[in-house]
Amino acid sequence: MNEPTAHHPPAAVEVHYPAPIPPAHTAPVVPMQPGSVPAVTSVVLPDGRVITGYAIEPAKPEPVAAKPVVSRAAVNIALGGIGFAAICGGLLLLTTFIAALAALIHQLIILAAVIFGGWIAVQVFSASGRGGGTTVNIRKAVIKRNHFRG
Description:
By secondary structure, the chain is mainly alpha-helical. It is 45% helix and 8% strand. It has helices spanning 72-130, 138-146, and strands at 19-20, 40-44, 50-54. A three-stranded antiparallel beta sheet has the order 1-2-3, with no helix packed on it. The longest helix is centred in the C-terminal third of the chain and has 59 residues, at 72-130.
């Protein structure tokens, strides 16, 4: 960029610092109450301009308010409400479980009845198809039992 060459020697760098303007009159320092207007400060820039303004102090954060004390009764009521909700939820789950268990037992009883009824049907129908088994003549049995003579 601006490298020193035979035609352009290196330029000297000048640093300018702002110089505060002394006050026009010197008044004794009087302690000021907070919230009053701060003193005016003036600064002279290197090009001769004067900047005048107020010194600003950084804003202080507001003190943290103390936490309010929670009463023991409020804590007990809140814990009681949580416990009551937990018990209600548990009872709801328990009744749901009992209803599901009752439905399962009901289905198992129906399944056992269907299986047992099927087994009986197989026994009845297979006995008549085999040709074996006991044949009972009902007419003779009734007559023998009642001792009919004819």
